[in-house]
Amino acid sequence: MAFRFVQITDHHIMATEAMLARGYSPSHALRAVLRHIAQHHGDVDFIVSTGDLVDKGLDEEYRTFRGMLGLRNASAAPGPQMASGEGLREVPMYFLPGNHDPREVFFRTMFPGEAPAPAAMNVAFEHKGVRFVCVDWGAANKAVTTPGMLAHLASCLADGVPAVVLSHHNVGPVGVARLDGLAADDAGRFGEVLAGRNVLAVLHGHTHLTVETALAGVKVLGLRSTHFSFAQAGDEWLYVLRPPQYRVVTVDGGVLTSEVVEVAL
Ligand SMILES: [Fe+2]
């Protein structure tokens, strides 16, 4: 059955909405993106955030984040929880942790029923015949492949149900040297598990850039953050302002297509 969902990523929300990061307001940007989704794509089946929900991993940052989204209900990880912020009408939302989300605080604040908090969020959920496989590369800036994550992925892909892999970290190079190095050195092992399976795409965040690449013949889609973005100019590492984006994904007849929507600030 055809359906649509939205991906957002890398919000880096701070303790209060008034706080700025290098002069940029992450809360203003996330609110603008949520409002745009509500006005133009409010009828999607769900929204998923691929991590870095907050900036430093503080309890009060998660409280601010949850308040902005108007999250009301509890759930097991990864969701859904119903979002009502900025005009959203109780849209189900799923959440992955990124490297800015210490797992203990992430689980305690977002999924308080999970005790003790798992060390990693390797879970899956199904929606209209498609399995969404959440993979966790850890809380370091550079992705780390673990046997547990690879086993989880292999097990979720074994029966041939069409799958979408949701990842915080990039799974390969994205064309910016410093970001390329953040993928796991042995990401090829991840590719070996994907190869030949019924995987419609891998969706990721982390690099704060929108890119389309491929791994083991599978489409890999990275998405620009709602936070500020990165660029490299020679040896210089630059923090740059770009309008935030979100991705509207359509799954129809075993094919995944998507459209990137840019939001003016
Ligand atoms: Fe990030």
Question: How are the SSEs ordered, and which strands pair?
Answer:
Elements: E1 3-8, H1 26-41, E2 46-49, H2 59-69, E3 81-83, E4 91-95, H3 103-110, E5 123-127, E6 130-135, H4 147-157, E7 163-167, H5 177-180, H6 187-194, E8 199-204, E9 211-215, E10 218-222, E11 229-233, E12 236-240, E13 245-252, E14 255-262
Helix pairs in contact: 2-3, 4-6
The structure holds fe (ii) ion (FE2).
List keywords for this structure.
265 residues; alpha/beta; Purple Acid Phosphatase, chain A, domain 2; six-stranded mixed beta sheet; globular; binds fe (ii) ion
Shape: globular
Count of separate structural domains? 1
Distance linking N and C termini: 35 Å
**Percent of residues in helices:** 10-25%
Largest beta-sheet details: 6 strands, mixed
Concise overview:
The protein has 265 residues and is an alpha/beta fold. It has helices spanning 26-41, 59-69, 103-110, 147-157, 177-180, 187-194, and strands at 3-8, 46-49, 81-83, 91-95, 123-127, 130-135, 163-167, 199-204, 211-215, 218-222, 229-233, 236-240, 245-252, 255-262.
Model description:
It is a single chain. The protein has a single domain, classed as Metallo-dependent phosphatases (Purple Acid Phosphatase, chain A, domain 2, 4-Layer Sandwich), CATH 3.60.21.10. Helices cover 22% and strands 29% of the residues. A six-stranded mixed β-sheet has the order 3-4-2-1-13-14, with helices on one face. Helix 2 crosses helix 3 and helix 4 runs parallel beside helix 6. The radius of gyration is 17 Å and the shape is globular. The mean pLDDT is 96. The site of fe (ii) ion (FE2) has 8 residues, from loops.
